[in-house]
């Protein structure tokens, strides 16, 4: 057994198997999960990693030892687990380490209705109780039901975005040997889509590339395949398929801010005057476009727990993050990369223009993307940046430091888990964005390791 304090993060559980996360630990977490949540029934799903089935089985033993009944959904994406939690009205646990390398695994937990469990909403209590229960054994007394939820998940998504009447589209999907290879065929079945699959074989060793579409090198194969096949667009999913990255017909990446604005406009057409959530490092174009479409933009800190909490508080219909997480009120306020992808496909299929032209209406600024710097003293670096930009713009310290000037802004925020500062900069013209980005990086570099 490893150190539970090390593997229990702010929003989930994640660690190296078996050094930090093993079956006795998973069993103890299963028992603790039931005790802390008071659940009578729990739904469990897992990804394609070699360690996922035995870890899920251990968790199930622990949950059943506390007299909870378990619905085992088997292989699934994280948004399939959210669908299960929402549609069945049960707390749920997903075994996955998302985009992390093969040696990792973890758990994402939620209460009934896909309500997230984080550090301040039960995860700390589960950790502490699990630490007390490791090594304790009890006979499972709760029932175990195996239930295939894939077809129900696919049907539900198709009721939220109707793709049946659009023009035929050729779509390359890079599943990265992750769970998109399991869910995409089910969702696309019977739709006017010619699917070109890349790396659909479920393989938790990730033999082709990491299942992390935020890293440009992991998009190269998809971009090439879009061009070679003459496809209308490409989609890249991460390991647990809750994030989706979009490539246009020219092989160019489409910013998640642009996707956020596009989906927001579609949701506002359906729900006039509704609230849209965006985090503080999405493009300035997002709140502008939301207002232009009659919506109410609300800005939040970075992180899914903040997005989901603010969506629940405001009743927002949609929320988007720079990390390609997209959240929907119609999907229990949970995130689904697949549902966002379906909105893009619907927007494209409803007219005859190529995707690059469709999204150009939502792209107004030049962005740096996220630039990470390793620093020995995060506080000192932030202090120097504050000093350098004093009097040059408005300061906001909601999450790190955001400075906004005429036609530009940047945010510099510390990582919660690593000695990093993360910079995002944006401006109306590329030269200004580059100048701001490089100035901040130069200052940060003076305290870098």
From TrEMBL:
Alphabetically, the GO molecular function entries are:
intramolecular phosphotransferase activity; metal ion binding
What is the protein named?
A: Phosphomannomutase/phosphoglucomutase
Q: Which InterPro entries match?
A: A-D-PHexomutase_a/b/a-I, A-D-PHexomutase_a/b/a-I/II/III, A-D-PHexomutase_a/b/a-II, A-D-PHexomutase_a/b/a-III, A-D-PHexomutase_C, A-D-PHexomutase_C_sf, Alpha-D-phosphohexomutase_SF
Q: Which UniProt keywords apply?
A: Isomerase, Magnesium, Metal-binding, Phosphoprotein
| Domain called Alpha-D-phosphohexomutase C-terminal: residue spans | 370-441
Which family is annotated?
A: Belongs to the phosphohexose mutase family.
**CDD domains, per database record:** PMM_PGM
Query: Cofactor(s) for this protein?
Result: Mg(2+)
- Record-annotated Alpha-D-phosphohexomutase alpha/beta/alpha domain positions: 6-130, 152-251, 261-365
**GO-annotated biological processes:** carbohydrate metabolic process
């Amino acid at each position: 057994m490893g150190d539970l304090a090390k593997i229990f993060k702010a929003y989930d559980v994640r660690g190296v198997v078996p050094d930090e996360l093993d079956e006795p630990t998973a069993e103890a977490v299963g028992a603790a999960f039931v005790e802390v949540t008071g659940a009578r029934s729990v739904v469990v799903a897992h990804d394609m990693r070699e360690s996922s089935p035995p870890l899920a089985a251990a968790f199930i033993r622990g949950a059943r030892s506390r007299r909870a009944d378990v619905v085992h959904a088997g292989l699934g994406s994280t948004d399939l687990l959210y669908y299960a939690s929402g549609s069945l009205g049960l707390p749920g646990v997903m075994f996955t380490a998302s985009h992390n390398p093969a040696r990792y695994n973890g758990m994402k937990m939620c209460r009934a209705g896909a309500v997230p469990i984080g550090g301040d909403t039960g995860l700390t209590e589960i950790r502490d109780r699990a630490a007390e229960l490791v090594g304790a054994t009890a006979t499972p007394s709760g029932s175990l039901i195996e239930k295939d939820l894939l077809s129900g998940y696919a049907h539900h998504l198709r009721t939220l975005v109707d793709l049946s009447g659009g023009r035929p589209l050729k779509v390359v999907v890079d599943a990265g040997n992750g769970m998109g290879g399991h869910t995409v065929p089910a969702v696309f079945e019977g739709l006017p889509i010619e699917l070109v699959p890349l790396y659909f074989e479920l393989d938790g060793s990730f033999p082709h590339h990491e299942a992390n579409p935020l890293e440009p090198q992991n998009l190269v194969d998809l971009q090439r395949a879009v061009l070679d096949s003459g496809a209308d667009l490409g989609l890249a999913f991460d390991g647990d398929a809750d994030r989706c990255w979009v490539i246009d017909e020219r092989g160019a990446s489409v910013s998640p801010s642009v996707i956020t604005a596009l989906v927001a406009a579609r949701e506002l057409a359906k729900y006039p005057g509704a609230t849209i959530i965006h985090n503080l490092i999405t493009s300035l174009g997002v709140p502008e476009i939301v207002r232009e479409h009659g919506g109410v933009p609300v800005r939040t800190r970075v992180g899914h727990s903040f997005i989901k909490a603010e969506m629940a508080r405001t009743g927002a219909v949609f929320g988007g993050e720079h990390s390609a997480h997209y959240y929907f009120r119609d999907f229990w306020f949970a995130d689904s990369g697949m549902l966002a992808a379906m909105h893009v496909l619907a927007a494209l299929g409803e007219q005859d223009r190529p995707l690059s032209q469709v999204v150009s209406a939502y792209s107004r600024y030049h962005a740096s993307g996220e630039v990470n710097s390793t620093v020995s003293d995060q506080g000192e670096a932030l202090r120097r940046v504050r000093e350098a930009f004093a009097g040059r713009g408005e300061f906001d310290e909601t999450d790190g430091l955001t400075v906004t000037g005429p036609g530009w802004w940047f945010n510099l925020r510390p990582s919660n888990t690593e000695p990093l500062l993360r910079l995002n900069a944006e401006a109306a013209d590329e030269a200004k964005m580059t100048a701001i980005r490089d100035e901040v990086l130069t200052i940060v570099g003076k305290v870098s390791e």
